[in-house]
Amino acid sequence: MTSRKSTGTSATRWLGVVVLLMLTLLALCGLVFSAEDVVQGSTVRLMYIHVPSIWVAYIAFVITALCSATYLSSKSRSLVWDRVAGASGEIGVIFVALSLVTGSLWGRITWGTYWVWDARLTSTAFLFITYIGYLAVRRLGGTHRQRARRSGVLALLAVIEIPLVHFSVKMWRSLHQDASVANTNAKVELDGLMLFSLFLGVVSFTLLYAWLVLHRQRVLFLEDAVADRGLDAAILSRRDEAQV
Amino acid sequence: MSTNFRLRRQITVAVARKDLLIEWNSRILVNQVAPFAAIVMVMFAFALDNDGILQQVAPGLVWLATLFSMLVVIQRTFAVESADGALDALRVAGVDPGALFVGKALALMVQLFALETLLVATAVVLYGVEMSIAGLGMAFVTVIVATIGLSFVGTLYGGLAAGARGRETLLPLLLLPVVAPVLIGATRATEAAFGSGGASISEGWPWIGLLAVFAVLFGVVGAVAFGPLIDE
Amino acid sequence: METVIELNGVVAVLGQFPALAGIDLRVHRGEIVLLQGPNGAGKTSILRVCAGLMPIERGVGKILGIDLNTNRDAIRSRVGLLGHANGLYLDLTVTQNIEFWASTVAATKDEVRLAMQSMKIDGRLATVKASQLSAGQRRRTALASLIVRRAEIWLLDEPHAGLDAAGRNELDSLLRDAVRAGATVVLASHESERAGGLATRTVIVDGGSIGQGEL
Lengths: 244, 232, 215
Fold this sequence. Notes:
The complex is a heterotrimer of chains A (244), B (232) and C (215). With 244 residues, chain A is mostly helical. Helix content of chain A is 75%, strand content 0%. In chain A, helix 2 packs across helix 6 (192-241), helix 3 packs antiparallel against helix 4 (119-138) and helix 3 packs parallel to helix 5. The longest helix of chain A has 50 residues, at 192-241. The two termini of chain A are 35 Å apart. In chain A, 35% of the residues are buried. With 232 residues, chain B is mainly alpha-helical. Chain B has one domain. The model of chain B has no long low-confidence stretch (mean pLDDT 91). The radius of gyration of chain C is 17 Å and the shape is globular. The two termini of chain C are 17 Å apart. Chains in contact: A-B, A-C, B-C. The A-B interface holds A 72, 126, 129-130, 132-133, 136-137, 140-142, 146, 149-150, 153-154, 156-157, 160-161, 164-165, 167-169, 171-172, 175 and B 156, 160, 164, 166-167, 170, 173-174, 177-178, 180-181, 184-185, 188, 206-207, 210, 213-214, 217, 221, 225, 228-229, 231-232.
C-alpha cells in the first residue's frame, strides 16, 4: 500500500474534473439559460436537482443490493464488495435526503405545504428510513465479515421491502383522488433546453455519485486496514500476557 | 447435516410448542403485554378527545396498538433465548434455522392473534364501533392474514436484533418501516369491517390480498434469511 | 488414531479483542483433554470455536475433518457444547427442557429417561422450573440435555462447577462411558487439581495461546 496523502488516483482526479465541469454547466443551464415554467415560474429549477437526486438514490441502492448479493454468493467473500455496498449506501442516503428536501421545498413554494402524502414522496421517505436502518446495522461492531453478512442480508431484504411499501402506498393514495390535493405528477412542459438540462443533471449526478463512492470505499478500506493493524498489535500484546 | 422434512416439521412443532409453553408458564402476554395494549388504547382516547373521530380512526388505532405491543412480544421471545444461552445451544445442536424460524413465528402468531382479538374487542367497547356479521367475518380474516405476515417479519428482524448489546434498540427502527404495508392494508381492511367512514365490506378484499402477498413473501424469505442473521 | 480436532494458528476475536492469538491444538478420538489456564486465557473461546459458534479470523480449523472456514454449519449437531451458560429455558421445568432438546434430535422417550437417570434427576426435581434450580441442578439438567443429543465431541466449560463430590464422580463416570462409546471430550477448567484424574492429557492455555501439553 503506497503511502499516498489522499484517496485519489489519477483516474479519480480526471473524473473529478469532468464532474466539476458538468456540474458547472448544469448550474448555468439550469439556473440561467433554461426557461421558466409557465405555471410554476422559477421554482421549476429545483427539478434539476430533485430528479437527478432521486435517480442517483435508486442507482445507489441497486448497486448496494447487487454488491451485497455478490458478496454473499461468492466463494471468496472478498470484502471489496461489502465496502462498495456500504459506500454506495451512505452516498445513497445523502441523495435521498437531498431529494426529499428539494421535493419538500418545491412543494412549499408551489403549493404552500412542506409535505404531501402522495405515493412517490411517501415511498421515498420510506427508502430513506430503510437505509438509515441499513447504516445503523453496519455500525453494530464485530468483525468485518459479520458486518458484511448482516448488512448484506439486510440490503437484499430491502430489495423486497421497498417495492412492497411503494405498492402499498400507491394503493393507499389512489383512494384519495382529491382534485384539491396538489398533484405532484403535474406535467411540466419541457422544451429542448430544459430536457437537455435534466439529462445533463442525471448524467453529472451519476458521475458525482461514482466519484464519491470510489473515494468513500477507499476510506472504508483504510478504516478496515487500521482495524486489522490494531488486531495485529493486540494479538502480540495478548501473547505477551501469557506466562507460557 | 441432512435434516429431512419430517425432522424439520418435528423441530418446527417442538419450537412452537416450547415458546407457547414458556408463555403459558410465565404469563407475560396476559399479565403485562395485554394490559399495556389496553392502556395504549385508552391513551389514544385521552389524546384524541372526540368520540366521532375515535370511532372513525378506530381501525388505525387498533393496529398501531398492535404494532407497539408486538415490539415488546418479539423482544421477549428472543430474550428467553439469550437469557441462558439457549440460542447458542440451538445453533450448536444444528437445529435447522428455517424450522426454528417457522416455529418461533407460529408461536408468535398465536400470541399476536390473541392480542389482536382483545384489541378489536376493546375498540368495540371503548370507541363505540359497531360491526355486522359480515364485518366480523372480514375483521377475523384480516386479523389472521395480517398476523401471519407480522409474525414472519417480526421473527426475522427479531433474530437480527437479538442477543448482543446495542442490538435490541434497533428492532423498532428496522421493523416499523418494513411493516408499513401491513399497517396500511390491515387498517383499510378493518375500516371495511367496521364500516368506518361509510366503507363497505367488499372494499376490504384487495387489502387482504396485499396482506396475503406480504405474508407469503416474508414467510419464504424469512426461512432463508433467518439462518445467516442469527449466526455469529 | 483419528484426529477429530485440528487447530493451526487459529485467531478468533471478540469485537476487536483477540480472544485467541494463534492456537495450535490437535485432539484425537477417544481422548479426554483438559484445557487448563487462568480466567481470560481463552479456554472458553477454544471451545466455542470447536463448536462452530465463533468464526475463525485467521488460521485453519478442522473438526471431524470439516474445515471451519468454509463449512461451519456441517459440524453442528455432531458436536455438543456446555458453556458458561446452561442453555436452559428458565420458565420451563427440568423435564420440559430436556424433552425439548430431545425432540430436536428425535430422541426416544427411553433415551430421555436414561439421560435423566444418569444425571440423578428424580421425579421431584423434574417438575421444578429451571429458574428455581441451584447452579449444580442446572448443570445436571444441561448435561442431561447434552447426553440426549448423542454428540461425537463433547465440549464442556467448567462442567464440575457447582457439583458436589457425588455429582462430580457421577460426571466423571458419565464422561468415561461416553468416551468408551466413541466420543471425545474436551473440557476447560481453571481448577488445577480437579480434572487431573479424569483427563488423558492436559493442555495449558494462557494469553490466547497454547503452552506445552503434558500427559
